[in-house]
Amino acid sequence: MWELIRRFALAVLCSIPWCAPLWGAAPLYLSDERFEAFEHLRTFEQWSVFGASDPSRCIAASLPTSSEARRDGRLMTLMRGEIFLVVNFSDEGNQPQRELSFFPDFPLGSAAGLLGDREFDLRPEGDVARPISPTANDIVIRALHRETEVTFVTLTTRGTEVTDVFSLDGFSAAFAEAATRCGQ
Predict the structure, then answer these.
(1) How far is it, in rounded angstroms, from Cα 61 to Cα 84?
(2) Of 161 and 96, which is predicted with more confidence?
(3) What values do phi and psi take at 29, rounded to 5?
Protein backbone atom coordinates (compact mmCIF):
# COMPACT_ATOMS: atom_id res chain seq x y z
CA MET A 1 0.00 0.00 0.00
CA TRP A 2 2.77 2.47 0.94
CA GLU A 3 4.64 1.61 -2.25
CA LEU A 4 1.55 2.50 -4.28
CA ILE A 5 1.19 5.83 -2.44
CA ARG A 6 4.92 6.53 -2.90
CA ARG A 7 4.68 5.86 -6.66
CA PHE A 8 1.61 8.05 -6.99
CA ALA A 9 3.26 10.91 -5.10
CA LEU A 10 6.41 10.67 -7.21
CA ALA A 11 4.35 10.53 -10.40
CA VAL A 12 2.56 13.73 -9.38
CA LEU A 13 5.68 15.58 -8.22
CA CYS A 14 8.25 14.39 -10.75
CA SER A 15 8.58 15.13 -14.41
CA ILE A 16 9.78 12.49 -16.82
CA PRO A 17 12.59 11.44 -17.27
CA TRP A 18 14.72 12.86 -14.45
CA CYS A 19 12.64 11.26 -11.71
CA ALA A 20 12.22 7.83 -13.33
CA PRO A 21 15.34 6.29 -11.70
CA LEU A 22 13.75 6.84 -8.29
CA TRP A 23 10.93 4.39 -8.87
CA GLY A 24 11.11 2.91 -12.35
CA ALA A 25 10.00 4.31 -15.66
CA ALA A 26 6.72 6.17 -15.74
CA PRO A 27 4.49 5.92 -18.78
CA LEU A 28 4.98 8.55 -21.44
CA TYR A 29 1.86 10.47 -22.46
CA LEU A 30 1.73 12.05 -25.88
CA SER A 31 -0.40 15.19 -25.82
CA ASP A 32 0.72 16.34 -29.29
CA GLU A 33 -2.32 16.34 -31.61
CA ARG A 34 -0.44 14.19 -34.13
CA PHE A 35 -0.63 11.34 -31.62
CA GLU A 36 -4.13 11.86 -30.21
CA ALA A 37 -5.41 8.65 -31.86
CA PHE A 38 -2.83 6.59 -29.94
CA GLU A 39 -3.37 4.98 -26.55
CA HIS A 40 -0.54 4.13 -24.14
CA LEU A 41 -0.08 0.36 -24.01
CA ARG A 42 3.17 -0.40 -22.20
CA THR A 43 6.43 1.10 -20.92
CA PHE A 44 9.92 -0.37 -21.23
CA GLU A 45 12.42 1.68 -19.21
CA GLN A 46 12.74 5.00 -21.16
CA TRP A 47 10.51 3.90 -24.06
CA SER A 48 6.73 3.54 -24.33
CA VAL A 49 4.51 1.74 -26.83
CA PHE A 50 1.27 3.22 -28.15
CA GLY A 51 -1.41 1.73 -30.37
CA ALA A 52 -4.16 3.25 -32.49
CA SER A 53 -7.67 1.91 -32.97
CA ASP A 54 -6.38 0.71 -36.35
CA PRO A 55 -4.36 -2.39 -35.31
CA SER A 56 -1.80 -1.80 -38.05
CA ARG A 57 -0.67 1.53 -36.49
CA CYS A 58 1.68 1.55 -33.49
CA ILE A 59 4.50 3.71 -32.25
CA ALA A 60 7.43 3.35 -29.88
CA ALA A 61 8.35 6.74 -28.38
CA SER A 62 10.66 8.37 -25.87
CA LEU A 63 11.41 11.77 -24.35
CA PRO A 64 14.97 13.16 -24.20
CA THR A 65 17.07 12.56 -21.09
CA SER A 66 18.82 15.90 -21.66
CA SER A 67 18.51 18.99 -23.85
CA GLU A 68 20.81 21.94 -24.34
CA ALA A 69 20.55 25.08 -26.48
CA ARG A 70 23.45 27.35 -27.47
CA ARG A 71 23.71 30.47 -29.58
CA ASP A 72 27.10 31.98 -30.38
CA GLY A 73 28.61 29.47 -27.92
CA ARG A 74 26.50 30.69 -24.99
CA LEU A 75 24.10 28.41 -23.15
CA MET A 76 20.55 29.71 -23.40
CA THR A 77 17.00 28.83 -22.49
CA LEU A 78 14.77 27.73 -25.33
CA MET A 79 11.03 27.56 -24.72
CA ARG A 80 9.83 24.25 -26.13
CA GLY A 81 6.87 21.98 -25.82
CA GLU A 82 7.09 18.22 -25.97
CA ILE A 83 10.13 16.67 -27.64
CA PHE A 84 9.83 13.10 -28.97
CA LEU A 85 11.79 10.42 -30.72
CA VAL A 86 9.33 8.06 -32.41
CA VAL A 87 9.41 4.90 -34.48
CA ASN A 88 6.13 4.73 -36.38
CA PHE A 89 4.90 1.28 -37.40
CA SER A 90 2.30 1.12 -40.16
CA ASP A 91 1.11 -1.22 -42.85
CA GLU A 92 0.58 0.92 -45.93
CA GLY A 93 0.00 -0.87 -49.21
CA ASN A 94 0.42 -4.25 -47.46
CA GLN A 95 4.06 -3.46 -46.83
CA PRO A 96 5.22 -3.01 -43.23
CA GLN A 97 6.72 0.43 -42.67
CA ARG A 98 8.98 1.46 -39.78
CA GLU A 99 9.91 5.12 -39.82
CA LEU A 100 12.09 6.99 -37.34
CA SER A 101 11.03 10.59 -36.65
CA PHE A 102 12.48 13.22 -34.34
CA PHE A 103 10.08 15.93 -33.12
CA PRO A 104 12.14 18.80 -31.59
CA ASP A 105 9.14 21.20 -31.32
CA PHE A 106 10.59 24.03 -33.39
CA PRO A 107 11.09 24.76 -37.10
CA LEU A 108 14.34 23.16 -38.22
CA GLY A 109 17.14 24.69 -40.23
CA SER A 110 19.27 21.53 -40.26
CA ALA A 111 19.54 18.28 -38.31
CA ALA A 112 21.98 15.43 -37.73
CA GLY A 113 22.14 12.47 -35.40
CA LEU A 114 24.97 10.73 -33.60
CA LEU A 115 24.95 7.03 -32.66
CA GLY A 116 28.14 5.95 -30.96
CA ASP A 117 30.87 7.37 -33.21
CA ARG A 118 28.70 7.39 -36.35
CA GLU A 119 26.91 10.49 -37.59
CA PHE A 120 23.82 10.33 -39.77
CA ASP A 121 22.05 13.08 -41.70
CA LEU A 122 18.41 13.91 -41.18
CA ARG A 123 15.97 15.53 -43.57
CA PRO A 124 14.16 18.45 -41.86
CA GLU A 125 10.46 18.79 -42.73
CA GLY A 126 9.10 21.75 -40.77
CA ASP A 127 9.28 20.70 -37.12
CA VAL A 128 10.12 17.02 -37.83
CA ALA A 129 13.40 15.39 -38.90
CA ARG A 130 13.74 11.96 -40.49
CA PRO A 131 16.63 9.94 -41.98
CA ILE A 132 17.39 11.07 -45.51
CA SER A 133 16.25 7.86 -47.26
CA PRO A 134 14.45 4.57 -46.55
CA THR A 135 17.82 2.78 -46.60
CA ALA A 136 19.30 5.26 -44.11
CA ASN A 137 16.18 4.86 -41.95
CA ASP A 138 16.68 1.07 -41.79
CA ILE A 139 20.40 1.44 -41.00
CA VAL A 140 19.72 3.92 -38.17
CA ILE A 141 16.93 1.78 -36.66
CA ARG A 142 19.22 -1.30 -36.67
CA ALA A 143 21.98 0.74 -35.00
CA LEU A 144 19.58 1.97 -32.27
CA HIS A 145 19.38 -1.63 -31.01
CA ARG A 146 23.15 -1.72 -30.40
CA GLU A 147 23.75 1.65 -28.71
CA THR A 148 22.90 3.11 -25.29
CA GLU A 149 21.95 6.61 -26.44
CA VAL A 150 21.34 8.69 -29.54
CA THR A 151 22.08 12.41 -29.84
CA PHE A 152 20.37 14.84 -32.19
CA VAL A 153 22.05 18.13 -33.04
CA THR A 154 19.73 20.57 -34.73
CA LEU A 155 19.89 24.15 -35.85
CA THR A 156 16.77 26.27 -35.48
CA THR A 157 15.75 28.58 -38.27
CA ARG A 158 16.99 31.41 -35.99
CA GLY A 159 20.49 29.93 -35.66
CA THR A 160 20.33 28.29 -32.21
CA GLU A 161 22.13 24.95 -31.95
CA VAL A 162 20.10 22.46 -29.91
CA THR A 163 21.35 19.10 -28.64
CA ASP A 164 18.84 16.48 -27.47
CA VAL A 165 20.00 13.16 -26.01
CA PHE A 166 17.72 10.12 -25.83
CA SER A 167 18.41 7.01 -23.79
CA LEU A 168 17.98 3.76 -25.66
CA ASP A 169 17.28 1.81 -22.45
CA GLY A 170 14.20 -0.24 -23.28
CA PHE A 171 14.28 0.61 -27.01
CA SER A 172 14.68 -2.97 -28.25
CA ALA A 173 11.87 -4.26 -26.03
CA ALA A 174 9.53 -1.40 -27.02
CA PHE A 175 10.41 -1.87 -30.70
CA ALA A 176 9.66 -5.61 -30.50
CA GLU A 177 6.37 -4.98 -28.66
CA ALA A 178 5.21 -2.38 -31.18
CA ALA A 179 6.19 -4.60 -34.11
CA THR A 180 4.33 -7.56 -32.61
CA ARG A 181 1.19 -5.52 -31.85
CA CYS A 182 1.17 -4.19 -35.41
CA GLY A 183 1.65 -7.63 -36.91
CA GLN A 184 5.13 -6.98 -38.28
Answers:
(1) 7
(2) 161
(3) -115, 130
Q: 143-159 pLDDT, tens per residue?
A: 999 999 999 999 988 88
Domain-located, residue 51: yes
Q: Please tell me the total count of domains within the chain.
A: 1
**108 assigned to some structural domain:** yes
Residue 16 placed within a domain? no
Give the range of the structural domain holding residue 113, as residue numbers without chain letter. 23-181
- pLDDT digits 0-9 by tens, 170-184: 999 999 999 998 876
More confident of the two residues 148 and 24:
148
User: According to the model, what pLDDT value does residue 87 have?
Assistant: 95
DSSP annotation string for 114-134: EETTEEEEEEEETTEEEESSH
Apex CA 17: angle with CA 15 and CA 19, to 5°?
Answer: 65
Nearest to 171 by CA among 62, 67, 90, 63: 62
What is the percent of the chain where pLDDT is above 90?
54
Does residue 94 lie within any of the structural domains? Answer: yes
CATH code of the domain covering residue 152: 2.60.40
Q: Which helix (H) or strand (E) holds 160?
A: none
CA distances from 158 to 22, 72, 87, 169 (A): 37, 12, 28, 33
Q: Tell me the C-alpha distance between 45 and 95, whole Å.
A: 29
